[in-house]
UniProtKB/TrEMBL annotation:
The lineage of its organism: Bacteria, Bacillati, Actinomycetota, Actinomycetes, Pseudonocardiales. The chain crosses the membrane at residues 37-60, 95-114, 126-148, 154-173, 194-215, 250-268. The keyword Ion transport does not apply. It comes from the Bacteria. Belongs to the binding-protein-dependent transport system permease family. The keyword Transport applies. Residues 88-268 form the ABC transmembrane type-1 domain. This is ABC transporter permease. InterPro entries: MetI-like, MetI-like_sf. Keywords: Cell membrane, Membrane, Transmembrane, Transmembrane helix, Transport. It is a multi-pass membrane protein. It is found in: Cell membrane. It holds the Pfam family BPD_transp_1.
Length: 285
């Protein structure tokens, strides 16, 4: 005795097969894209290193650019004697403290001022005026006021972080639809409900993106201050080597700074994609 399968069951089975095939095809496509991206990035990196090693001498005096092999050897020496770890620890400590202080102050002031349009409009001209000042011009003043220790570097890092977090947080808050807020008020939403359930989720993409990119700015602020006057840190290492015409150490310090920034940015981007997969990443600054 044969059992006849209903047409609806056959259609459902076929639908599941089509969905499985489409999912598998999409998985293969993404895998191919990742492979192509990895191959392209690796190939470009190898080409740059080969040109730097063998071709740059025809454009620039090799004494002023060194070469990847010599720079790699110098990095190994700095790691072996522990000097680079000491300077790296100082710079990351300054950048991390400046990042935390700047991000916290930026978020607090943004949510405080964005609640009242007049408050932000009063503050905005001073913000724009202070933001337009080249921050490197402030570094000597901070060092005169606070000495050669951690404090001026932390303040410089916090300033670079503060403005970006503040501007993007205010932008995200002010882009919340006024109509949506009015409707929620009509339905009895309290000020706390509006902030926690409407304003914060709407502003979250801009806030998270700005926080992600500002850690690199914090490192930039710490290194800039170390360039001006310091006795420790990666900026001090590069400045000291530059004055001594030690090109290998200059490039070693620059590459280490770049590697740290790239690693931090990649880690923060990974956290962002895990926490907010819908994030577009648009940010000002």
């Amino acid at each position: 005795m044969s059992i006849e399968v209903a047409p609806t069951e056959r259609a459902a089975d076929r639908g599941r097969e089509v969905l499985a095939e489409a999912a598998e095809a999409e998985h293969r496509r993404r895998h191919r894209e990742r492979v192509h991206l990895w191959l392209g990035t690796t190939g470009l990196g190898i080409a740059i290193l080969l040109f730097w090693q063998f071709g740059i001498q025809y454009l620039v005096n090799p004494r002023y650019v060194s070469d990847p092999v010599s720079i790699t050897a110098r990095i190994g020496e700095l790691l072996a004697d522990g000097e680079i770890i000491e300077h790296l620890t100082v710079t990351l400590t300054e950048a991390a403290l400046g990042f935390l202080i700047g991000a916290a102050l930026g978020l607090l002031s943004a949510f405080a001022l964005a609640q009242t349009r007049r408050g932000y409009e009063v503050f905005e001209p001073f913000l724009i005026g202070f933001y337009s000042i080249p921050k490197i011009a402030l570094a000597p003043l901070f060092i005169l006021w606070f000495g050669l220790g951690y404090t001026p570097k932390i303040i410089m890092a916090a300033l670079l972080v503060y403005f970006i977090v503040f501007v993007n947080s205010v932008t995200g808050i002010r882009e919340v639809s006024p109509g949506l807020l009015q409707v929620c008020r009509v339905f009895g939403a309290s000020r706390r409900d509006l902030l926690l359930k409407i304003v914060l989720p709407s502003a979250a993409p801009a806030v998270v993106a700005s926080i992600r990119i500002t850690f690199t700015r914090a490192i930039e602020g710490a290194v800039l201050s170390e360039f001006v006057a310091s006795t420790q840190g990666l900026g001090y290492l590069v400045a000291r080597a530059s004055r001594a015409f030690d090109i290998e150490t200059v490039f070693a310090g620059i590459l280490i700074i770049a590697a740290v920034v790239m690693a931090a940015n990649g880690l923060l981007r990974l956290c962002e994609s895990r926490l907010m997969p819908w994030q577009t990443g648009r940010v000002h600054g």
